[in-house]
Automatic annotation (TrEMBL):
Residues 451-490 form the Transcription factor zinc-finger domain. GO terms for molecular function: metal ion binding; metalloendopeptidase activity. Its cofactor is Zn(2+). Residues 325-352 form a coiled coil. This is Heat shock protein HtpX. It comes from the Bacteria.
C-alpha cells in the first residue's frame, strides 16, 4: 500500500483530542436535554397550578430566577450521574446485552477473523484492536471503544459464516474507518448514555423477579416499580430520539469510502452489505444500539419513504451499494449478480453428508449389537433404589442416575440390590466417593468417561464445520457444547442428501401432528454423559425445535444421535432462508 499515509489521517494525540471534544459535546447535549425536559414538564405543571391560584404567577421575577436555578441544579446532577455511569459501565452493558464473547483461536472461522484484525491493526496504525463475536446466525457487525480506550470490532457468527475472506476484510475495514473517524467513540458514548435507562429498567425488573416467589402470576409483583419503569422507558425513548437526531446518516457513506481506501475492494464491501441487508440482520431485543450496526436490524423492512428517510440511523442500502459499485465502475445489478454466482459456487462446494443409512447391512448389524451390549451394561450397573417423598422405591438406577434424582441428598434412603443393603446414601462408600468426585469436578465413574452414551465406543476428538466436538466413529453420535451450536447453524460446509431433507420436513410435520410419529421421536433410554458421568436429561432441543435430545446441564453439552444434529441444521437453514419478519424471534 503506497498511499497508506492518507488512510491514517489521525495521530494518537489527535484522536484523543477529538474524543475529548466529543465527550464535552455529548455532556453539554445531555445537559440541554435534561434542562429542557425537566424545565418544560415542571413549567407545565406549575402553570396549571397558577391558573387555579390567583396569588401565584409563574413569571414573577423572584420566583422565576429561583425556579430556573433549581431546574439547572437538578439537570446538572442528573447529567453528571448519567454521564459517569455511561463511562463506567456502558460498554460492558452493551456487550452483555448483545451476548458478545471473545473469539476462540482454535476455531477456524474465529482464527481467520483474528488474523484479519491483526492485519488491520498494522495497516491502520491503531494501537490495539480487539475482536468480539455474537453467537447468532444473523448477519451484522459493529465497533466500540472499550473502557480502557482500546477499540473493538464485533461480528456475528452468521457474518463469519457467510462472508468470504475479502468481504470480512471489507467489514473490518468499514468498522476501522468508523474508529479512525471518531464515529465509534461518539456512538459508543451516546449509546452508553441512552443505555442508562435500560440498565435502570433491567435492575428494577430483577428486583421484581426476586421479590416474587409465585411463578404462576408473573405480572403480579409489578406494583411498586411500575411507575418508575414507565418513567425510565419514557426518558430512554426521548433520549434515543434526541441522540439519533445528532447522528449524521452521512457517516455511513463516509466510512464506506474510507473502508475502500483501507481494503481497496469496493465490490467486496458492496457484496457483504447486500448480503446483510437481504439476510436477517436482527440483533438482540433492544433498539438502543441500532446506530452502531453495519446495517440496521430491520434493514429489509425499511422503505424509501420521506418519513423513513428522516428517522433512520442509516442511509438507504441502495444508495450505499450504488456509491460503492460506482467506485469499481460497476452497477448495483452486478453486485447482486456476483453474490448470486458466489452463492451457487458455494452450494456446489459443500461436502455431502454421509450417514449410517448408506453403510453396509453387516456394519449396521454390528452396531445394533454394540448398542444392545451398552444397554445391558447400563442395566447391570443399575443396582440402586431410592426412596422418594411418597415412601416408594424408585429404580433400579445406575450411580450417575441416582445422584441426579431431583430429590437426592446424602440423607436420602437408598438400597443396594446387589448386596441387599439399605440406609442413608452417605453411608455407602460408592456414593460418598461419587459425590466427592463430583465436588472436585471429576467424572463420576471413570468407567463411563469418554465412552459413547449410545454404544460405549471410545469417543474421538473431531471438527464439525470448524467446531471442536467429540464424536463416536461407530454410531456417528456427537457431543457438542451448547455455546457452539449457533456456529454450526450459521456455517454451511455440509450438504445434506435429499432423503435427509425429506426426513427433516416429515419430522417437522410430525411435531405439528401428534398422531404421526417418525422414528426420530421414539422413546429414548437413559444415557450417561461421557464428560461428567451423570445421567443426561432428555429435553426438547429448544422452544422452536421440539426434538427430544440428551442434555447435560452441568457440562453445558448436548448429545446428538446420528442424523439429529443434521435434521436440526436443515430445519434452521430452511427457516433463516425464509425472509419473513416473523422468523426473527
Ligand atoms: Zn456410539
Ligand atoms: Zn455432563
Amino acid at each position: 500500500m503506497v498511499e497508506k499515509k492518507d488512510t491514517v489521517p489521525l495521530s494518537f494525540w489527535e484522536i484523543q483530542k477529538k474524543q475529548q471534544r466529543a465527550s464535552l459535546f455529548l455532556f453539554l447535549m445531555l445537559f440541554v436535554f435534561y434542562f429542557l425536559t425537566i424545565g418544560l414538564v415542571s413549567a407545565a405543571i406549575l402553570m396549571t397550578a397558577g391558573a387555579f391560584l390567583a396569588s401565584f404567577t409563574f413569571f414573577a421575577s423572584s420566583f422565576f430566577y429561583k425556579y430556573t436555578a433549581i431546574v439547572f441544579g437538578i439537570a446538572l446532577v442528573l447529567t453528571i450521574i448519567n454521564f459517569i455511569q455511561a463511562r463506567k459501565s456502558g460498554v460492558s452493558y452493551i456487550l452483555k446485552n448483545l451476548r458478545a464473547c471473545s473469539p476462540d483461536p482454535e476455531d477456524r472461522y474465529h482464527l481467520s477473523f483474528l488474523n484479519i484484525l491483526e492485519e488491520m491493526k498494522i495497516s491502520s496504525g491503531l494501537l490495539g484492536l480487539r475482536g468480539y463475536i455474537i453467537p447468532t446466525v444473523n448477519l451484522n457487525s459493529l465497533s466500540l471503544i472499550g473502557q480502557d480506550g482500546l477499540p473493538a470490532i464485533v461480528v456475528t457468527e452468521g457474518l463469519l459464516a457467510e462472508a468470504s475472506r475479502d468481504e470480512l476484510q471489507a467489514v473490518v475495514a468499514h468498522e476501522t474507518a468508523h474508529i479512525l473517524k471518531g464515529d465509534t467513540f461518539f456512538l459508543t458514548l451516546s449509546c452508553s448514555i441512552v443505555a442508562f435507562y435500560q440498565q435502570l429498567i433491567d435492575s428494577l425488573d430483577e428486583e421484581r423477579d426476586l421479590s416474587q416467589s409465585d411463578l404462576k402470576h408473573p405480572r403480579r409483583g409489578r406494583g411498586s416499580a411500575q411507575p418508575l419503569i414507565y418513567l425510565a422507558s419514557f426518558f430512554s425513548y426521548l433520549l434515543l430520539n434526541f441522540f439519533v437526531a445528532l447522528i449524521s446518516q452521512k457517516r455511513e457513506i463516509l466510512a464506506d469510502a474510507t473502508a475502500v481506501e483501507l481494503s481497496r475492494d469496493p465490490m467486496a464491501l458492496a457484496r457483504v452489505i447486500y448480503k446483510a441487508h437481504v439476510a436477517n440482520s436482527f440483533l438482540g431485543d433492544s433498539s438502543l444500539f441500532t446506530p452502531l450496526f453495519l446495517v440496521p436490524p430491520d434493514s429489509r423492512d425499511i422503505q424509501e419513504t420521506p418519513r423513513d428517510k428522516l428517522f433512520n440511523t442509516h442511509p438507504p442500502v441502495m444508495l450505499r451499494l450504488k456509491t460503492l459499485a460506482d467506485m469499481a465502475h460497476k452497477n448495483v445489478k452486478e453486485v447482486m449478480e456476483e453474490v448470486r454466482a458466489q452463492e451457487e459456487q458455494r452450494e456446489k462446494s459443500r461436502l455431502l453428508y454421509s450417514s449410517l443409512e448408506d453403510s453396509s447391512p453387516d456394519y449396521q448389524e454390528k452396531l445394533r449389537e454394540l448398542q444392545l451390549r451398552a444397554r445391558e451394561d447400563l442395566e447391570k450397573n443399575s443396582i440402586w433404589l431410592a426412596r422418594n417423598a411418597r415412601g416408594q422405591w424408585d429404580g433400579p438406577l445406575a450411580l450417575g442416575s441416582l445422584v441426579t434424582l431431583p430429590y437426592f441428598t446424602p440423607a436420602t434412603r437408598i438400597k443396594n440390590i446387589k448386596e441387599n443393603l439399605e440406609g442413608p446414601a452417605r453411608n455407602f462408600p460408592q456414593v460418598r466417593f461419587a459425590l466427592y468426585r463430583q465436588l472436585k469436578k471429576q467424572p463420576l465413574d471413570p468407567a463411563t468417561q469418554n465412552k459413547c452414551p449410545t454404544c460405549r465406543t471410545e469417543l474421538t476428538e473431531a471438527f464439525y464445520e470448524g467446531v471442536r466436538i467429540k464424536k463416536c466413529q461407530a454410531c456417528q453420535g456427537k457431543l457438542v457444547a451448547m455455546a457452539d451450536l449457533e456456529k454450526i447453524f450459521a456455517r454451511r460446509e455440509l450438504a445434506f442428501p435429499d432423503w435427509l431433507k425429506q426426513k427433516a420436513l416429515a419430522y417437522r410435520e410430525a411435531l405439528l401432528n401428534p398422531d404421526l410419529k417418525p422414528p426420530v421421536l421414539k422413546e429414548k433410554p437413559p444415557a450417561i454423559c461421557p464428560e461428567c458421568g451423570l445421567q443426561f436429561t432428555l429435553r426438547p432441543f429448544s422452544y422452536h425445535y421440539l426434538m427430544p435430545v440428551y442434555k447435560c446441564y452441568p457440562c453445558q453439552r448436548i448429545w446428538f444421535e446420528d442424523q439429529e444434529l443434521e435434521i436440526l441444521q436443515i430445519l434452521v437453514e430452511n427457516r433463516s432462508r425464509n425472509h419473513s419478519p416473523a422468523s426473527r424471534t
